[in-house]
Predict the structure.
Amino acid sequence: MEKSDAEEGEEIRVIVRDRYGKIAREGDCFEEKGSCCRPAGGGGAESLSEVLGYSAEELKQLPEGADLGLGCGAPLLAAKIEKGMTVLDLGSGAGIDVFLAARLVGEAGFAIGVDMTPEMVVRARKSARDNGIKNAEFRLGEIEHLPVADSSVDLVISNCVVNLSPEKEKVFAEAYRVLRPGGQMVLSDIVARYAFPDKIRGDIDLYCGCMAGAQTAHALEAMMQKAGFEGGRIDPREKVRRAIDSWAPCEEISDRIYSALISAKKPDKSL
């Protein structure tokens, strides 16, 4: 009997959750610990993060273990972030972007991370507690069903996570729901240059590695528009090319994908 889309989606979620749970337990994934891991040329997570756009100064400010090297860019670089804002990170992992956002919004602001992997949430909460970070919170949940109130955040960010969702339209709809009117969404993610053949799309190792689940720019733009966003942009980040080449198992894959900053705005209908 053929599996339904819902059954296939849940199967993908379970596999992704298990793989990233293992990374959370074992630390960064720059040793041979599984097919979702990314070699960084011997430099480790911090070395890769500098390639992706984080400054050495930012990385030094992070709690130990918050950077597992799982991103494909630095979404806060393109975000208009101000003191007092509430920022939500979709798929927050060990907390790198939540902790950076918490510093930027100051004591009057707040940063929330949502992740479906219990081990990641436990790890991030411990980092916040051990480092006395009061304006950051980590919630267990799926990014397709956010445990966040309507119109309660100013900025939604994400770093190489939306491609892992089997229900991406729901992710954009949820991001739209939780944003305040006039709020901004900035995602760093992997984009497909063109549609993948079934052989690649069905490879669960490539899916967990943030490759096979990537969508084309056209598909992503359509999803954002359907959710209600306006001013959608997809800006390739060629500087990240070297990092992507190091993850992909062969040129057949690396030539088909690129890292991009995906941004859009929830319209403020009161204006």
About this structure: Strands lie at 86-90, 110-115, 136-140, 153-159, 179-192, 215-216, 230-236, 257-265. Residues 30-37 have pLDDT under 50 and may be disordered.
